[in-house]
Every structure is written in structure tokens, then in C-alpha cells.
Design brief:
homodimer, alpha/beta, Aspartate Aminotransferase, domain 1, Aspartate Aminotransferase, domain 2, 4-stranded antiparallel beta sheet, 14 helices, 11 strands, 43% helix, globular
Amino acid sequence: MATPTTAARFEDLLSVRAAIGRGGPAPGGQAGRKPGYEFGSGRPDPASFPYDGLVVATARMMAAEGADALTYGDPQGYVGLRELIARKHGRFEGLAIGPEDLLIINGSSHGISLVIGAFVDPGDPVICEAPTFSGTLNTLRRHGAELHGVPLDAEGLPPAAVRERLEALRAQGRPCKLLYLMPNFHNPAGPTLPLARRRELLAVAREYNVPILEDDAYGELRFEGEALPSLYALDEDGIVTRSGTLSKILGAGVRLGWLLAPRDLLPIFQSFNFGGGVSPFTSRVVTYYLRDHLEEHVARLVEVYRAKRDAMLAGLDEVLADTDGEISRPAGGFFIWLRLPSGTDRAKLARLAAESGAGSVPGTSFFPNGGGEGYIRLAFSYESPERCHEGARALAGAIYRSID
Amino acid sequence: MATPTTAARFEDLLSVRAAIGRGGPAPGGQAGRKPGYEFGSGRPDPASFPYDGLVVATARMMAAEGADALTYGDPQGYVGLRELIARKHGRFEGLAIGPEDLLIINGSSHGISLVIGAFVDPGDPVICEAPTFSGTLNTLRRHGAELHGVPLDAEGLPPAAVRERLEALRAQGRPCKLLYLMPNFHNPAGPTLPLARRRELLAVAREYNVPILEDDAYGELRFEGEALPSLYALDEDGIVTRSGTLSKILGAGVRLGWLLAPRDLLPIFQSFNFGGGVSPFTSRVVTYYLRDHLEEHVARLVEVYRAKRDAMLAGLDEVLADTDGEISRPAGGFFIWLRLPSGTDRAKLARLAAESGAGSVPGTSFFPNGGGEGYIRLAFSYESPERCHEGARALAGAIYRSID
């Protein structure tokens, strides 16, 4: 029934948001053919998926509450899953929350889009890190946000620079609608924000009355050191919303995450989550599995991903140690951030990297206002430790041979 | 961490859309205690859910493609499910479409919100039926649409009245952004739009360059008569987007539906569906089940729901036959629409209906611009035929005794 002219016919009828970015690439797709070493997108380790455990959980769940799994659900999300997530926050962080503090969502990106939609009209200023997660950049741009990227230093987002930006906006009479940041194992850059900075950022946000969106997709996957309290946990004023996800600790294919937020903000986010609750079926399957296996499964994943990180770091270090390239050493998460050595010929690198078979994401994808040409991001999450090592050596060789 | 003042603190920071309807009821919830007879919301028949079939399908699917089920998916949706939906359109309607014509979504309401979001900015005119589906009314209102309800007659939406409204808008220089309608087994009113009207509405929409959103949540559940071609099937100009769902033919808890649309519109709708594809896990579970069971399962559901409709109609007719009340007799779907007899004392009816234990939805919920006080909607989908009959008699008795 389609004609090639349908979109053109309705071009003038598109909403302001839909018209933003028309002609750009379709979101979410992965271009080109599959690389030999999948270091591009942050796909979870397939060997760690609990295949049998989820089949058993499905059978047990359907026997116990199949009728509820197959009909419309609670708009806030299955209470059993919310209880489990609340318990998780207690076990992993000593944070006392309840199911009424949570909204179940279709994965972290969905939750982030609900928060952005609640605050951002086209043209509104938003402060984010530079670099930051490319998926959220896409969502912010689709909503027409005016992006103010604040450069990271070795410890993450500097509160003084955030204050400066807020002061400049205030001088223009323009309120900042949102401050978006990743305090743990920053994607892509790696740093974990120190406690003092967390407190300072809260104070700045309170002073300028800016809602904070704390993206914590990887918080459970800490390879070493002690967990720091989240901004949500430190917040005494109800200004922080925190997003989490099962994508990294169970499987991205279940499309389940949560928003943890001041209770009176949850209905505002929820009101743009149309339909009969988020996945009553899948929510119950994963709850039945994780009730019995959460701690042991996460402990296993920490071992798995630490080994992969170490293997990739070893492969990079073995080849690039005598260059001035900089390689992040994140305390958790999925990613390594690499500043290319001075004098790297990027055209030559593109050719040699393709020959090496190792994928990566160019640094430019992560910057809200341009820049990042000298960086690449590598994901160690998907490939085995052996292949992380081998592929990292191959890519590092390509980099080495590209130095002028 | 929440304080009672968070929403108030950020009230001025809310987006235009988030500020719409603040202070209204939270969407999606069901107020009050459960009625004895659940005739209110259109919940699918729980006895017909394929509990064992889905458990078997989960085990088979996980063995065959568990890794793909648990990682990020195709942004357009699992191709196996799109192939199955395309095949369904061939089998049930003789409509030749392919997987590339479909976008998988989190249930029909989600798809409808994507289409509305693509076209409607706050203040934009939208034409819909009066009455129409209350869930879509909520979504339209949340997006700030200016609603133009066109009254239905016994055959559904009258094309001449739509043309009149479009002409009036054109005279004001305001394009209508969307025409939303339900041609089959209209919810709540019941009529199925005749073929001639379908053609006429297409001609009117083409003439005024209005995109049509055809909501076909119940199309497979036809109890009698021949299926008419959908507006999508009749459309030669690429102006129709049609939404469908597995909620009524499998289970609302899987939260899966689809948009069938001109191919170059799909990326526009998809671009506001953030995240890693719609439920790769659940999409595969239901595909593995429905590949082998679709036709037999739908045939069974048609028997099940026809028996319930007939039982409810019998119960109503037995008591109300000698009044001037009007009772719809839909050829499919989940709902009966009842115009109360002249002289019904609505305050008295509210009291007696509560005593009868039978739930219903007041007609006012379905009207975009007021009205509907003399109507109620009854769902026969959830209760058994016996209870449909018994509850309908009880409610009809309450109505009868409320006539002045």
C-alpha cells in the first residue's frame, strides 16, 4: 500500500519533535557488517545468560500466576519485581527503599526518555557530561534539547564547571531543565565520581533547582573497591531520579529496567508510559528467576566481566605501553576509553583497524557539542577473555602502525 | 529520599506535555473495589490463555535461540514475529504484506501513542469518533490535541460529517493532524463500518491530506459475517496506519502489538521508541507458540467470546425487552453499548447497580467533547457465559427498577 511519497505528503503535518532530525540515520540500528571482534556495542556476555534458569522460572511462574502474567498489569509495574529491585538496593547498597519508590520500565533508555519527556521542550537547556552515553544523546536530541556538555576530568564531572554553566544560563534567565550524569564506571570515559563531588553536585543542583537524572546501568558490576553511595541515596531534597536496568545483570532482551525517584514524580513519568503496564509476563519470569539467584548471578558476572576487562587491558598495554596513548581502567562496567597516541593518522588507522577485524565506536559519537576525534570506545563485554586479549592486541597493533 | 514538595519544586520545569492534565487522575489505574461481575474493563478471558503452550514454547525457543532472545533486538522488532503477523494478515484477510511493513510495539496503546506523537503538537486539531476508545482519548489529551469528535450513527462514522469538520478547519487555515477511527466492532459503540463508508472516508482523507490511524484491536474476533477489507487494504495513496495487537488473541500481559504502515512512515514512528528493540524475549516466546497454534487458537477464541456475547445479550434482553433502551449487538470484539431507557433515574441506577455487583463504564468516559450520560459500556470478555448472563440480568434489573 505504501507509496514513496507518503512521508513527503505528510512532512508539513509532523509534530515539532518528529520533524527533529528528519533525514538523519534511523536510531538503534548497527551499520555495516559484523566485525570479527565485537568491541563496538556494549552487548552483554551471552555465555552468562541463565538459559535453563529462565525456562524453569517460566514454568514455575505460569503454574503459580499465569493468569496475571497474561493480562493487563499494574501501571507502576509488577509489585513482585519492584519488591525484588527494592531488596537488591538493600543488599548491594544498604539503601532502604520500597516498591512504591519504583516505576518499572522497558529498559533504561525507555526510562530516560520518560524523564526527558517530562522536563524538556524543544530548545530547553540540558546539562550533560562530555563525553556521555550516545543513546541518551540521541534521546535528548530527538526531544530538541539544547545540549550543554561539561567536559570530564580524570575524576568525572567537575561540580565547579557545572555551577559555571548554570550561572551562565541563569544570567540569560533560562532555567536548566535537567542535569544528566553517570557517576559509576562512566560510559564511555570510565571514571567513578568521588563522594565529595557527588555531594557538591547535589548542592549545586539544589541551589539552582535542577532535577538530576542519575544513570546507573552498571552499578552492580563493580570489579574492585567499595561502592559509593548514589546521588539518590545522598539526596535529602528529592531532586534525584535514578535509572537502573536488568540489561547488564540478566539480559537486555527482557527489556526491563526501573526509575527510582521521589514518589510524587513517578506519576508524572508514568503518565507518558501508555498502555497496560510494562510486560507483566516477562516481569514475572525474571522475578521468579532472580528471587533465588540474584546475588550468585551478579557475583558470577563480576568475575566474568573483570576477567574480560583485564584481558583487554593486557592486550592494549602489551602493544601501546611505550606510546603516550591513554587507556582507561574502569572499576566496573563494560567499556574502555582510549585516547589515541599523538600523531595517530586516523585515516590510516581506519584502514588498519578494519583489517584487524576489531570493532570500536569513534569518540565523536559521545560528545554533545563536537569533539572526541582522538578517542575510541571499546566494549569488553561480549567477547571471551581470550578474544578480548587477541582482538585488543590486533587493534592496538593497528593503532601503533598508524602513528606518524 | 522523597519529600512531599518535589513535584511542586519542579512544577515550573515540566515540559508542556507533562504539565497537561497535572492534578488529574493517574492514568491506567482502576478505581474502587472489584465488582462482583467484571463487566468494566475489557480484560481477556483468562480460561483461554495457553498456559502450557507458552511454557513449552519458551523451552523450545530458548534451546533454539536463547542468546538472541536475551540481548538487544532489531529496532523494528523480531523479524520472526513480523513474518508471523504478515502471514496472519494473509490468512485472515488475504492481505499481502511483508515483515518490512510492520513495526513491533509494546501493545496497541503504545503504537497509537507513537503515531499521535509523530503528528500532534499541543493545540493541534485531531478528528476522532464520538464515542471512541477512552485509552486513546487519554493519549490524545496528554499530547494536547484539540479534539473534534464526530458523532457516530448506526453504521459508524459518517464520511459527510468528517468532511464538514475538515472543511471548517480548512476555512480556519488549520490542518487536521490525524483522523482516528475503529472500523471493526467499534469500542464502545459496536458498529462495523460498511465498505462504502470506508472508501468514502479514504477519499475525504486524501482530499484533505489527513493521515488516518485505523485501530483494529479486535479484527480477528469476528463472530459472524464476512470480514470487510481494512482501510489500510483499500488505501492506494499510503495515508493509512493501522494498529493491531496480541492482547485480545493471545494475552495482554505479553504487551505486544504492531503498526502496519507505509514503509517510509515506520522510521518516523520508530524514532520515538527508544531502547533496544521491543521485547526480544517475549516476541520469540509468542512466535514459537503462535507459529503452530494461531488459527486454532483464534478459532477457539471466536467460539468463546461469541458465547459470552450471546449470554450477556440474552440476560439484558430478558429484562429490558419492553423498554426503549437500546442494546448494541456487535459482530465481534469485547463490548456491548447500552443506551439507558428514557426516564432512567441515574442516581438511583448508580445505587442499584452497585448492589447488583455488576461493573460497567459510564458512557461519559468515551466522549471527546462531553455527552454520553445516557450510556454505559459492558465488557463480556472476562466472565464466563453463565456469569455474563446472570450479571447482565442483575444489572438489567437495576436499570429496570430505575426507570421513573
